[in-house]
Amino acid sequence: GQLVESGGGLVQPGGSLRLSCVASGFTFSSYGMNWYRQAPGKERELVATISSTGGRTTYADSVKGRFTISRDNAKNTVYLQMNNLKPEDTDVYYCNARFWAYSYWGQGTQVTVSS
């Protein structure tokens, strides 16, 4: 299986970005999907999760009310809409697919929030 993220970049504080993650090589609709982020020298942090059907989502307290995770199973794609971005949201963002013992990771996309 393969995951390819896109949509990262440089944005000013208060701005928005939408990350996308396209899956291939596995049955996307059976997998829960997650977004993580990691800064150099820090542990990877779980940002948001979405169930296989999209009916259940969870968020880290640090992004609740600002980020929205969604998925389109017809397009094998999961999204992370990020609004009101803050400098502390600067990280590499990773897409993860998980189903029982199976797990796939993307290569990451850099998000930089700076004026």
Description:
The strands form two sheets. Strands 2, 4, 5, 6, 9, 10 and 11 form a seven-stranded mixed sheet that branches. The chain has a four-stranded antiparallel sheet with strand order 1-3-8-7, with no helix packed on it. By secondary structure, it is an all-beta fold. A hairpin with a 6-residue loop joins strand 4 and strand 5. It has strands at residues 2-6, 9-11, 17-24, 32-38, 45-50, 57-59, 67-72, 77-82, 91-99, 102-105, 109-113.
SSE string, helices as H and strands as E:
EEEEEEEEEEE
Radius of gyration: 13 Å
Strand content range: over 45%
State the end-to-end distance: 37 Å
- Major beta sheet summary: 7 strands, mixed
Tally of DSSP β-strands: 11
Q: Helices and strands: which structural class?
A: mainly beta
| Fraction in helix | under 10%
Discrete helix count: 0
- Mean pLDDT metric: 97
Give the overall shape, derived from the CA principal axes.
globular
Ranges where pLDDT stays below 50 over 5 or more residues in a row are: none
What's the topology here?
Elements: E1 2-6, E2 9-11, E3 17-24, E4 32-38, E5 45-50, E6 57-59, E7 67-72, E8 77-82, E9 91-99, E10 102-105, E11 109-113
Quick rundown:
This protein is mainly beta and 115 residues long.
Descriptive key words:
115 residues, 11 strands, 4-stranded antiparallel beta sheet, 0% helix, mainly beta
